[in-house]
Design goal:
The structure is a single chain. By secondary structure, the chain is of the alpha+beta class. It is built from 13 helices and seven strands. Strands 1, 2, 3, 4, 5, 6 and 7 form a seven-stranded mixed beta sheet that branches.
Length: 341
């Protein structure tokens, strides 16, 4: 299974065709680690402007550790998967407290940091500290499955892939090898319409020899994600409206939002809005005009959000939300981190 030709072909192709990405022009483990965190389930072109903005605001890991969570989430706003940001902050604080601000190069120490998994530890330690640790992400799995003609990504085949990578990775430039195989997987050996004519190892690819590249590996059938109808309200108090902050340990934790929730079966949007304000804010409201509707898709569900202007039934009734809350003016919206929807 192990051949030297695929290694040389991949490295030669990468040297001539790799993208000039900002995190590839540094050996700083902080910047490399940041890029890997941002790139999780996010496209490269989406990440680049966020990467630059983050480093402009937080040029060192110490500046991340010293920042408050809300400021970090505001800079991250729109990138999604906010648990990545929260974990990165926790890890930065841990490094300041436990390792005197120095990112550990020891495998077990780095792997134990919040949010660091097998892929991240291999990527960062190989690129920043030149350790021979191969990466096995989705692009690499697909590329190797096609190259070696693996019909499925069974545990046995994944062990075969890991074994190949451990033998193939170059001790001199392990980070370059990892980036080369990931680059081919993401840019050439794409899930759909793979660009086999530009692949450096196409001549020996088993899936291409068999003439059905896109059928490797076989895709597992996914269930249709659920859809929810949601209603939220702009509760006005003169020129200000109410926002509440989501719990830290939940979905979109730590972000600010407008009160509201799911529309239950048999409810109208207005009925659901009245109920949600009673449950969340212990106050009675009158829904006014509808502002508009937004549709948004997350990784595991989709939502349709209807937004209404709202007003207190009794202006003297105290508003006591169960969550942290603020009354803000429209021009203050950019001071708080909100979910993208």
């Amino acid at each position: 299974m192990y051949t030297t030709s695929i290694i040389h072909d991949l490295l030669n192709w990468y040297r001539d065709h790799h993208r000039d990405l900002p995190w590839r022009n540094t050996n700083d483990p902080y910047r490399i680690w940041l890029s890997e965190v941002m790139l999780q389930q996010t496209q490269v072109m989406t990440v680049i402007p966020y990467y630059h903005r983050w480093l402009h605001r937080f040029p060192t890991l110490k500046s991340v550790a010293n920042a408050d969570r809300e400021t970090l989430l505001k800079v991250w706003e729109g990138l999604g998967y906010y648990q990545r940001c929260r974990n990165f902050h926790r890890a930065a604080v841990m490094i300041q407290d436990k390792y005197q601000g120095i990112i550990p190069s020891d495998y077990k120490q780095f792997r134990a940091l919040p949010g660091v998994g097998d892929y991240t530890v291999a990527a960062v330690l190989s690129m920043a500290f030149h350790q021979s640790l191969p990466v096995l992400d989705g692009n690499v799995k697909r590329f190797l499955a096609r190259y070696f003609g693996m019909r499925n990504l069974s545990p046995f085949n994944l062990r075969r892939q890991q074994s190949f990578l451990e033998k193939a990775i170059q001790p001199v430039e392990p980070g370059i090898f990892n980036q080369a195989i990931m680059e081919v997987g993401s840019r050439i050996c794409r899930p759909r319409n793979p660009n086999c004519d530009q692949c450096p190892v196409a001549d020996t690819c088993q899936a291409r020899v068999r003439g059905n590249v896109e059928t490797y590996p076989q895709k597992t059938k996914r269930k249709t994600p659920p859809h929810y109808n949601v209603v939220i309200g702009l509760l006005w108090n003169k020129e200000r409206f109410l926002i509440t902050r989501r719990a830290e340990n939940g979905h979109l934790g730590g972000l600010w939002e407008l009160p509201g929730g799911k529309i239950e079966p048999g409810e109208t949007a207005e009925m659901a809005l009245r109920r949600e304000f009673i449950e969340e804010c212990r106050v009675h409201i009158v829904p006014g005009s509808r502002v508009g509707v937004v549709r948004h898709t997350y990784s595991h569900f989709s939502i349709r959000i209807a937004l209404f202007h709202c007003f207190l039934v009794n202006e003297n009734e105290p508003v006591i939300p169960l969550q942290p809350h603020r009354w803000i003016q429209p021009e203050n919206v950019n001071d708080y981190p909100f979910p993208k929807a």
